[in-house]
User: Fold Intercellular adhesion protein from Furfurilactobacillus curtus.
Amino acid sequence: MSKTMRKWLLAGFLILIFAFLGISVQRNIKFELGNKTSYAISTHDQNMRSGIMVFCYHRVLKNTRTVRLDERLSSNSQFHDFNVNLNDFKAQMAYLHRHHIQVISTAEMIQLATSHQRLKHRYVVLTFDDIDRTTIDNALPVMMKYHDPFTVSIITGDTGAYRAGTKLATWPQILKMKKIAGDLVTFGVHTNNMHYLTASGTPIFNVPSQFSRFKRDYATSQDVMQKKIGAETPIFTYPYGSGDIQVQAFLERQPLQVIYTLNTGIVTPHTNLKSTPRVIINTNSWPSITKWLTPKTTA
Assistant:
């Protein structure tokens, strides 16, 4: 066998190996993603005729080659659950306006939900957790285009830090956003620096021995908001979705009007806003959300 022939056989063998590995990776990804938590809203919620749905976003990523590759190959649930492609975000905002869904602020939600009157329409509130650079660089221009109000919840002690592969916005960047958005933006606190999990996977603020620290952390977060924004905020947003009984009871004693959770649901006049449900927006949840936004009977 000639040297050239051996090279071609080796090249063919390597191609077969890479092809096999590629197919195996894709199958594993499909299996893992197919068995992860579904963020689709319930059939009951899809059939509700009116109410307020609070959208929860984390990162809005530009449609770059790297992002597209990660979307195809990454089995990391954090990537698929908490990232939204910018093209998808633009399409979602366009969808709301094309179907005449009114986007309201958190303050307007409070007013409607406490009016004790039946809601006649479907409304949406836009919220963003953590506030990394993509919220400002990518999502903000889209919301400004439609003049949509939105709420951002800040980890007040972690601004400018790297988290989950992205960099959180700095205070100068946040204040620049505030100047651009004006009254369209509302601020909430997302703890000062207790947005992380223990080794066992428990949110640090839900560890009983950390309760005193959490109370101090909450006070610090509000002090930072007073210093940076000019006022404390009536909005607290839970990292990881919820707190234990002790944490929840403490927050309910604070002058807070809204405590945002990740308990999926739709806000109505019967909703306790101290445990406000939200819906995580991703490719998994969006199809079910559109069934509520534009039901067949009114489409």
Observations:
- The two ends are 69 Å apart (CA to CA).
